[in-house]
Every structure is written in C-alpha cells, then in structure tokens.
Amino acid sequence: MVSPMMVGLRVDFSMLLEPLGFVKVLEWILAIFAFATCGGFQGETTLLVSCKGVVNKTITAAFAYPFR
In angstroms, rounded to a whole number, what is the distance separating the alpha carbons of residues 41 and 62? Predict the structure, then answer.
C-alpha cells in the first residue's frame, strides 16, 4: 500500500536546461503578458476602386477588436 504522502505530481524540468525548451517557456510567458496588457485594437482598411470610364470610388471598412 502507498501512503498518501508518497503520491504526488512529478514535474520534469529537464527541458528547461536545453536552450529550445527555455525559449519555448519564455515565449509562453511573453504571450500571456502581451495579451493581458492589450486593451483593444482599432483599424481601417481603404480600397480605391477605379474602372475605365467610371468615377473612382473609395471603399472604407472600419474594424475593431475590443479585448474586454
């Protein structure tokens, strides 16, 4: 029988000793902070449509990504 003190979660941190493993963990941490500090994004896309013999038209599309 195994005592309750012997049962536990074993975590292997040996991947952090390799450069690629360390960089991967660093990427995750930076991604979490990047999305946590992002308050929103607004932008606009404009297209100029020109055809032969027709007045040029400008089409504008506004977009926003509120991260709330």
Answer: 11
User: How far apart, in whole angstroms, are the C-alpha atoms of residue 15 and residue 22?
Assistant: 7
Which pLDDT tens digit goes with each residue over 12-49?
Answer: 777 777 888 888 889 999 998 887 777 777 899 999 98
Q: 14-53 burial string, b = 16+ CB within 10 Å, else e?
A: eeeeeeeeeeeeeeeeeeeeeeeeeeeeeeeeeeeeeeee
Distance from C-alpha of 10 to C-alpha of 49, rounded to nearest angstrom: 62
| This prediction's pTM | 0.38
